[in-house]
Amino acid sequence: MGIAVDLLHASVDELARREAAFAAALERVGYPDPRISEPGYVTLLRAIVGQQVSLAAARAIWGKLDAAVGGAADPERMLEAGDDQLRAAGLSRQKIAYARSLAELVTAGELDLHNLPAEDEAAVARLVEVKGIGRWSAEIYLLFAEGRPDIFPAGDLAVQIELGRILGIDGRPTEKQLRALSEPWRPHRGAAAIFAWHHYRTAVL
User: Fold this and answer.
1) Domains contained in the chain, number
2) What are the tens digits of pLDDT across the range 32-41?
3) Cα–Cα dist 113/126, whole Å
4) What pLDDT is recorded for position 35?
5) Residue 125: is it exposed, middle or buried by C-beta count within 10 angstroms (0-12/13-18/19+)?
6) Do residue 69 and residue 108 come from a single domain?
7) Distance between CA atoms of 205 and 90, rounded to whole angstroms?
8) With DSSP H G I counted as helix, E B as strand and the rest as coil, what are the percentages for the chain, rounded to 5?
9) 8 Cβ contact list (under 8 Å, min separation 6)
């Protein structure tokens, strides 16, 4: 469901009020659009499929996978598919293991993606228990699919680069530095990340 547009804009306004650098950047590039994904199995599987490949490649692989298993949105179809089918669709051996692990957890009822812990860190911890889901993937899922307003993927390269530019920092801040810098932005750090991606893609003269 993502962060709703009115809440996203309100959060960006609050960031601009707290940080002059955000205010100047907002004047340059305007408001970002919301980033929204459906909560549930499909979005998390897409995150696995898309790891370490371009967006275009991820879309192509997803299309082949969907055709190969007769509906990738059904975790039982993933479990029924053979390795050869999944490899032909473009999944590596490692991604096959990750995708099967996720499908097994969902079909067994051991992972309920519609009932994750309300506390953000607890939700991240639950997701990273899934084979192949690291902190970045967990945070991206919680930000885009659940619209949690204070989720902050500080390990994202584009977020590091662009927030460094916005804040006038020499060199790219590390994940640890960025988490420390972002503390005063709570509970609007999700909007800060979304704004960074928006700024990253906007030509700034």
Assistant:
1) 2
2) 999 889 999 9
3) 10
4) 86
5) middle
6) yes
7) 40
8) 60, 0, 40
9) 31, 32, 34, 191, 194
Tokens matching residue 39: 């909560």
What's residue 3's pLDDT? 84
Looking up residue 179, the CATH number of its domain turns out to be 1.10.1670.40
pLDDT at residue 204, rounded to an integer: 46
Tokens 């669709």, located at residue: 89
Ranges in the chain, pLDDT < 70: 1, 203-205
Backbone dihedral region for residue 111 (phi beyond 0: left; psi -120 to 50: alpha; all else: beta): beta
- Burial (Cβ within 10 Å: 0-12, 13-18, ≥19) of residue 183: exposed
Tokens of 74: 């059904």
Same domain, 111 and 168: no
Q: What is the CATH number of the domain that holds 92?
A: 1.10.340.30
pTM to 2 decimal places: 0.89
> Model confidence over 80-94: pLDDT tens digits?
999 999 999 999 999
